[in-house]
Amino acid sequence: MNQLTTLRIEQTYKTPRIELNPMIGDLFFYGKSMPENASKIYEPVLEWVNEYILQPRPVTNLKINLEYFNTSSSLWISKILKALTNIQNPDYLLMVHLYISEEDFEDVQEFDDLKDSFSPVIDIFLNSTVSVGLRLYATNEKSEIVKDTLVLL
What we know:
The protein has five helices and seven strands. By secondary structure, the protein is an alpha/beta fold. Strand 3, helix 1 and strand 4 (about 60-70) form a beta-alpha-beta unit.
């Protein structure tokens, strides 16, 4: 098997910056995701993730800081999340870091609200073979983190 290398996709007006680093287990999505052809952006990412899960780091940090994403992007991100839940070592940890607006953060402070708001994401984690944690970050209008909370699933 070839050594997996860092995958970088530069940000454009319609696509996010994506950086996937196998050496430290950081997978980072930043910006906006509204490509006309989402598979062109996300298919190589999913292929990379499918290789990564064969030899993952003990802690994988998936950081999703997308101001906006369209439906096709959300489908691809769901596929990527689903693939990451197939890391075969139950002692390993998948930490999902979600960055949301401060207003949205205030709306989901109660766990039941959190479950309702993120049920599509949480549903993906239900049959996970890896331990999963979810960390929510509230960001202000300057994209600065002002609050955070940790939820272990």
